[in-house]
Amino acid sequence: MLNLTDTIVAIATPPGEGAIGIIRLSGNEAIAIADNIFSGKDLTQQPSHTLHFGKIMDGGAVIDEVVVSIYKGPKSYTGEDVAEISCHGSGFVLEQVINLCMAQGARMAKPGEFTLRAFLNGKLDLTQAEAVADLIASQSGTAHKAAIHNLRGGFSEDLKDMREQLIRFSALIELELDFSEEDVEFADRTQFYELLDRLTFTTQQLVNSFSLGNVIKNGVKVAIIGRPNAGKSTLLNALLNEERAIVSEIAGTTRDTIEETLNINGILFRLIDTAGIREHSIDVIELQGMERSMDAMNKADIVIYLFDLLNTPPNSQFPIPNSDSNIKYLLVGNKVDEMGIDEARSAFKDIDGNILFISAKNKENIHQLKEALYGLVVDGGIKQEGTIITNARHYGALQQVLKSLNEIRSGLDNLISGDLISLDIRTCLHYLGEITGEVTTEDKLDYIFSKFCIGK
User: Fold this and answer.
1) Is the pLDDT of residue 376 over 70?
2) What SS3 state is found at 288?
3) Which phi and psi (to 5°) does residue 329 adopt?
4) CA 367 to each of CA 96, 182, 356, 359: distance values in angstroms, whole numbers, following the listed order
5) Which of 139, 180, 243, 264, by CA, is between 20 and 30 Å from 285?
6) Average pLDDT, the chain
7) How many CB atoms lie within 10 A of CB 243?
């Protein structure tokens, strides 16, 4: 475990040139270290939550003109004294200031160490701490919304309420054990069943939300599959509204997969334009491209089966999954501008599955295709109020909570003794505590915070 009593320092802004770069210090000596290299007011005598203009000095040499922000614990992000030095965004300047801080006794922070200190000092629970990393990594409006909800303690409040209700009943059941010889019952079993119903429903909702939460956090892989010259690259360009992929009348122009991202109503779709798939080829590079196409299709969350309306029917170009398949797919007929919508509907009315007719070249019905992609993923769930689980660790713990609740119910049904029911309740409380960090280990904390960026 890291030494959490010393003073740490790190650059809190992204690498590269910028107008401003921020260096953050946290610890008992944070303000004193900043003052030792600062020419201006005596920072150690200034009130908390104030800004001070001055110079960073290396002996008699001026390194930069800066603004230093002072936050005194416990009213700071980490709960400790914090100083933030806002410099000009030169990599050289930032490195010089970091070296000066380290020469005064600070050490370089590890990834996530500032937030780890905030957690250990009671400023955040573990779900809120992880929400900080999610907020930094958010690439869409929905990911941002989910992270903000958790950062503000929305998920924590749900868990706190569950824990408090379970603890109350656990205390009553354990009280019964003290009066076991008198055969008294303090915990109303009817009310306990009602509580289990509520907790099981809430937990199941949270578990079910993970499929949507995983999409919100990581995006949706969409593979565009079809024969050579079906218009896959043209469709990619139409969806992105830019000329990303090379388009040619020559079949087999795309030899490798091309990946781009598209934001539809706050959901990130990772579009994969693949090499055309055909039955026979003697071109070694084309064969490798087709292998990668099949691999992309197998790993995709959604498959767009794109076919040329003017050529062979879609079911002779690739196997269309039956209604029992778990594969989510869209059957898309291209070049409707050349065939005509009425003729296309008539010609393909016997094909299993609904066909969306588009013209990738003229960007006709592209908006409808985007809506269809969004509908396959969300199905109304994005409007869900409250907590959406986006973290695999939370998901795993909630599954254990659900299992424990079922075991408690089974124990009540079978009239097992109160001490065994109490043990099952403690198991459930343990897994709830694992989520918020009330029950944790050093190894688990090291793993969680190692995934944070340095400076946060």
Assistant:
1) yes
2) helix
3) -145, 160
4) 52, 72, 11, 11
5) 243
6) 81
7) 11
Provide the token pair at 208.
Answer: 């079910």
- Helix (H), strand (E) at residue 70: strand 61-71
Helix axis angle, 126-137 to 154-178, nearest 10°: 160
With CA atoms as reference, report the closest residue to 258 among 284, 232, 231, 226. 232
AA identity, residue 389: I
Write down the pLDDT at residue 93. 94
Find, among 441, 409, 440, 439, the residue nearest to 424 by Cα. 409
Q: What is the pLDDT of residues 296-330, one digit of tens each?
A: 566 778 888 888 888 765 555 545 555 445 667 88
Residue 152, number of CB atoms within 10 A of its CB: 12
**Burial of 249: CB neighbours in 10 Å, binned 0-12, 13-18, 19+:** exposed
> Any idea what DSSP says for residue 109?
P
303 CB contacts (<8 Å, ≥6 apart)? 222, 223, 225, 297, 327, 328, 329, 330
N- to C-terminal Cα separation, the chain: 18
Name 353's Cβ contacts closer than 8 Å, sequence gap at least 6.
320, 329, 331
Of 15, 41, 11, nearest to 25 by C-alpha is 11
Res 382: pLDDT: 53
Which residues, 6 or more positions from 30, have their beta carbon under 8 angstroms from its beta carbon?
7, 80, 81, 82, 83, 106
CB 373 within 8 A of CB 358: no
Q: Order across the sheet with 267-273: list the strands.
A: 258-264, 267-273, 220-225, 302-308, 328-334, 355-357
Burial track 207-217 (b if 16+ CB lie within 10 A, e otherwise): bebbebbbbbb
Mapped onto helix, strand or coil, the DSSP state of residue 89 is strand
Q: What is the DSSP letter of 45?
A: G
Report residue 364: phi and psi, to 5°: -85, 130
Task: Give the span between the Cα atoms of 369 and 381, in whole angstroms.
Answer: 19
What does the pLDDT look like over 201-236, one tens digit per residue? Answer: 999 999 988 888 888 888 888 888 887 778 888 888
pTM comes to 0.72
* Side chain identity at residue 59, one-letter code: G
DSSP 161-211: HHHHHHHHHHHHHHHHHHTGGGT---S-HHHHHHHHHHHHHHHHHHHHTHH
3-state SS, residue 249: coil
Q: What is the pLDDT of residue 314?
A: 55
